[in-house]
Design goal:
5-stranded antiparallel beta sheet; alpha+beta; 8 helices; about 240 residues
Length: about 240
């Protein structure tokens, strides 16, 4: 006599029925889901609330070393790409549900409640206070941060080059000099008559440099702009 094959799902269902009633099972699942939803709401509240916490009680052996970064490394990246590294409560973008799930999982693994979240992102994604693309971190302590989650699109590879002139005052001055040289080179050679070419080129360059610097200074004061190295940790527009 051939033995009938067993359906594992059927076997599992029968075992479940023997161990717990359907009503009790549904009640237990409902409670678990409610507790899970309450925990997720607690995490969202923590992300949107101001916190002065600068460390969390992580279990060192459970940390992924490739996700640990020091503030100096974060600062360098922010300055290169003109990004901000600010408290998560200032973030006006949407934090994905996946990030909430990861925080929930980490809190269970480390038996702790995470606080003091910070996000690295472009200025436009933060609710900045007026003085006149994201990575979510949690502080470990002593200037170290643990990367929780990254979402959205990657930073454009040309952003670092485009933002280099605004990295510092020195870089900005170099940009103004280069722009002035280009404008000088575009002018016709005989525009000032038969005057010595080298002398007039120098005069024209100085005039262009003065004009370009004047326009740049006016724009910076008008818009309240600052350099990358000054704003990466600032919650203000300028």
């Amino acid at each position: 006599m051939l033995l009938n094959r067993k359906n594992l799902l059927t076997e599992l269902t029968e075992l479940t029925k023997k161990s717990v009633s359907e009503d009790d099972l549904l009640a237990e699942i409902k409670q678990i889901l409610a507790e899970n939803e309450a925990k997720r709401e607690e995490i969202k509240s923590s992300l949107s609330s101001k916190s002065s916490t600068n460390h969390n009680a992580f279990i060192f052996d459970k940390l992924e070393t490739e996700k640990i970064f020091h503030l100096t490394q974060i600062k360098s990246l922010c300055i290169d790409y003109r990004l901000r590294f600010l408290d998560s409560h200032l973030f006006k973008g949407t934090i994905p549900e996946e990030a909430i799930s990861i925080i929930h999982r980490i809190e269970k693994e480390h038996a702790t409640k995470l606080e003091g979240f910070r996000i690295m992102a472009p200025s436009k994604l933060f609710k900045l206070e007026n003085y006149d693309d994201p990575l979510l971190f949690a502080p470990i302590g002593n200037g170290y941060y643990y990367l929780i989650h990254k979402w959205g699109n990657d930073i454009h590879p040309l952003r670092k080059i485009a933002m280099k002139p605004f990295k510092s005052m020195g870089n900005f001055i170099v940009l103004l000099v280069v722009v002035s040289l280009l404008l000088t080179a575009l002018l016709p050679q005989n525009i000032f008559g038969k005057t010595s070419h080298s002398v007039m080129s120098l005069v024209t360059f100085l005039f262009m440099l003065k004009s370009v610097m004047g326009i740049a200074l006016y724009y910076c004061l008008w818009q309240g702009k600052s350099f990358n190295e000054d704003i990466w940790l600032s919650k203000y527009y300028n």
